[in-house]
Each structure stands twice: as structure tokens, then as C-alpha cells.
Specification:
The protein is α+β, with helices and mostly antiparallel strands. It is built from 9 helices and 15 strands. Strands 6, 7, 8, 9, 12 and 13 form a 6-stranded mixed β-sheet that branches. Strands 5-15-14-10-11 form a 5-stranded antiparallel β-sheet, with helices on one face. A 4-stranded antiparallel β-sheet has the order 2-1-4-3. Strand 10 and strand 11 form a beta hairpin. The longest helix is centred in the middle third of the chain and has 38 residues.
Length: 414
């Protein structure tokens, strides 16, 4: 158990006389120990945990401290150095100690081992394992300018190192789970299809949160016959992997229905029927647009979704009126189409609510903020998206953001 008595003595120093003095010293020592441990492992980030460990050790022992990872046992150098780096022993020696400590003990004992550098060094140094249980993450190396480290010092350093090792283990487990979740999300995220060459399309997707890769918001483009392209933007209720799974189901169903060349309102009707029969599928809003550049028209239909915007040739922005039916999954139906002009001078902008909505703000005011944005007359779809995302602060949005801009190319005939 690391010699708890020596450990407490190393923290509190010489005890005051009498039982009261001993009790007060123990209480003070326990407080110091709690403070040291509380400052280690405050995040699920391994480099941060190592830095917290070495800072705590350097401050308490007035020494230099560093970590040598088990992966760097070839002597490539120290990490998370705190204090005077020049006081530390040669990293090759520490690497050799790390390799030795990673091997099982022949005597079967389980308490940590401490190692001192070879004789001849001017400054005392100590190396303790950065380990917990059977897991070895490297070594903690300390070097002081004064007296040699005592056995009680080694006990305290071992305790702090084991605490840090436990947090490092949690950090690695969390990182592994995050990688798995990221791989799953990337597998669920499919790039939109390619539109016809007569239509320029740009798409942006910004998931909410720092660690998310994909959520419930999505965009899709599907080529249709006679030079037409189907554009779709949807928003599944919720966030994260669960919403992404339902998003993938909606996209799969949409692609199947698009192959039948149905008009937008009938696509929504069929999607609503399919989702209503799937009891575990989350509701979703959706906006479907069928663009016909040859005729300079776009036919739209919405299911509980915000209306699209259109950027005119002079750079002005306005919202397009679209009949709004209930969200998908309700089984109510009642979707209607609307047709608008869309030629090579106009850019259609379709988006999810995360682009415009702000906490505590009325949605009409949010949409009005979008409608007040002006663009340069020559801006293409990519330029339009970059301007919109910047002006509306989408990088800091609280919800997922999916946005699509499309503009017909000039055909020379109508």
C-alpha cells in the first residue's frame, strides 16, 4: 500500500507535539493530498493530464518533472516538462527504466518501483512508473536541485502517478469510443449525388458540437430525366448518431422514390407514409425542389420545413412562399406544390433551421435577418454559401446546419 505513514509524513513534515498536534498534522496533510489529486485529470485529454501531473509535482517538490511515454521508450524525449528541463536525467536512461518497469516483477510484488539514475549526477533524480493495475503508460521522471528524494517522496510520487495513469486510461477509452463513433458517423454520411451539368450546386454541412461528424440534417441531389434535378434538404429531430441513423433511412427512401420521377409533393406523401409505418423512426422536416433549368422553373413542396430563399441578379435576397405540410412521420399527409421562376440570374438557397434560428429569437425575425443579406451580383453558389455562413455565424450555431445553393447555368435557349 506504498507506506501510507511515510507518505503522510512527507506531506506534513515534522509533527507537532501531542495527540492534538498529530491530528492537526494529519488533517493538514490530507488536505494537501486532496489538493494535489484534485488538480490531476480534470479533462479527458491525455496530454493535459500529463501536464497537470508534472505541474503538480514540480510545484510541490520544487523540482523538474516530465513524462516519458511507453510508446517513446526508444528515448525520443520527454513530454509535459515542468520546471528546469536541464535538470532532468538523460532520456535514454529513463527509457530503459520504462522498459524495465513494463516487465513483470520476479518477486511477485505489486507496489510501484522507483529508480535512481547512475552515480555521478550532480542532481538527485527519481523515476516512478506511470501505471495502474496492468496498464503501463510510461514513467514520471523528477529531478531536484537539493537533497535526494526520500522513500516517502517516492510513495507520494507513485500515488500521484497512479492517479494520473488512471485518468490517462479513461482518456484513452474515451478517445477509442470517440473514434468508433466518428467512423460510424462517417459511414452514415454520404455525399449528395451529382446534379445535371446545367445546374451549379454547392452544399455545406456543419454538425453541432466539436466532436460530432454528422447528425440529423442532410442535403441530397438526384438527377432526373430531361435535364431536371431534384434538390432536397431535411432535418431529423435530435442530434448525434441516433438522428444520423434515421437520416440515412430517409435518404435511402428518397432515392428510391426519386427514381419513379414523382413530383415533390407526392414524394413527401410517400416519405410520410413510410416513416409513419416505422414506429422507431424520428419525425423529420423536409423541403423538396425539382429544378428544370430548360424551362427556368422550380417546383417546391415542404413538410414542416422553413421556406427557401432566392438571391436575385442584383444581389438582393427574398423568401419564396411554399405551402407547408406536417413533418414527415405523422401520417397526416396534405402536401401541396408551388412553382416559381428560377433562371440563370437567380440562386436558390435551401437550408435547415440551424442556419437561422437563435435561442430566444422569434423565427420570423431570424428569417428576416437572412433576407436582409445582400450579395455581389456575380456571386456563384459557393460564394453565396460562404457569405451566408459568415454573416449568420453558422460556425457557432447551437444546432446542425445543412445548406444548399443552386443556380441554373445559361443554356442560350428557353
Amino acid at each position: 500500500m506504498w507506506g501510507v505513514v511515510r507518505l503522510i509524513r512527507s506531506i506534513r513534515g515534522p509533527a507537532a507535539g501531542g495527540a492534538a498536534g498529530r491530528a492537526g498534522g494529519a488533517s493538514s496533510a490530507a488536505g494537501v493530498l486532496r489538493r494535489l489529486l484534485a488538480g490531476i485529470g480534470t479533462t479527458l485529454d491525455e496530454p493535459t493530464t500529463c501536464a497537470e501531473l508534472t505541474r503538480a509535482v514540480a510545484a510541490h517538490f520544487h523540482c523538474a518533472a516530465a513524462v516519458l511515454r511507453a510508446e517513446a521508450a526508444t528515448g525520443t524525449g520527454y513530454e509535459a516538462v515542468a520546471g528546469d528541463a536541464g535538470a532532468l536525467p538523460d532520456a535514454h536512461w529513463a527509457a530503459a527504466v520504462a522498459r524495465a518497469m513494463a516487465r513483470p516483477r520476479l518477486d511477485g510484488r505489486t507496489e510501484p518501483r522507483a529508480a535512481h539514475p547512475p552515480a555521478g549526477r550532480d542532481r538527485p533524480a527519481l523515476c516512478v512508473p506511470l501505471a495502474t493495475g496492468e496498464h503501463r503508460y510510461g514513467v514520471l521522471v523528477c529531478a531536484g536541485a537539493g537533497t535526494a528524494f526520500t522513500a516517502a517522496d517516492a510513495d507520494l510520487l507513485a500515488l500521484l502517478a497512479e492517479c494520473a495513469a488512471s485518468h490517462i486510461g479513461h482518456a484513452r477509452e474515451f478517445a477509442g469510443v470517440s473514434r468508433t463513433a466518428g467512423d460510424l458517423q462517417r459511414a452514415l454520411r454520404a455525399e449528395p449525388g451529382r446534379p445535371h451539368p446545367n445546374l451549379d450546386v454547392a452544399v455545406r454541412y456543419l454538425p453541432a458540437g466539436k466532436r460530432a461528424v454528422v447528425g440529423g440534417d442532410w442535403c441530397e441531389t438526384v438527377r432526373l430525366h430531361f435535364g431536371r434535378t431534384l434538390l432536397v434538404v431535411g432535418d431529423v429531430m435530435g442530434h448525434g448518431v441516433e438522428a444520423a441513423v434515421d437520416m440515412a433511412s430517409y435518404r435511402s427512401d428518397l432515392r428510391s422514390l426519386a427514381a419513379a420521377d414523382l413530383p415533390p409533393h407526392r414524394i413527401l406523401r410517400r416519405l410520410d407514409d413510410i416513416a409513419a409505418r416505422a414506429p422507431d423512426r424520428r419525425p423529420a422536416t423536409c423541403l423538396v425542389a425539382r429544378v428544370d433549368p430548360v424551362r427556368g422553373r422550380v417546383t417546391l413542396s415542404g413538410a414542416g420545413h422553413l421556406p427557401p430563399a432566392v438571391v436575385d441578379g442584383d444581389g438582393g435576397t427574398s423568401l419564396l412562399p411554399v405551402p407547408v405540410g406536417p413533418p414527415l412521420g405523422t401520417g397526416i399527409g396534405g402536401y401541396e406544390p408551388a412553382t416559381q421562376d428560377l433562371d440563370e440570374t437567380r440562386t436558390l438557397l435551401m437550408f435547415t433551421d440551424g442556419l437561422v434560428e437563435r435561442r430566444g429569437e422569434d423565427i420570423d425575425r431570424s428569417l428576416d435577418r437572412l433576407a436582409r443579406i445582400r450579395f455581389l451580383p456575380g456571386d456563384g453558389p459557393d460564394d453565396v454559401l460562404e457569405t451566408v455562413l459568415a454573416r449568420l455565424g453558422a460556425l457557432h450555431a447551437e444546432d446542425d446546419v445543412a445548406v444548399l445553393a443552386a443556380r441554373p447555368r445559361s443554356t442560350g435557349t428557353r
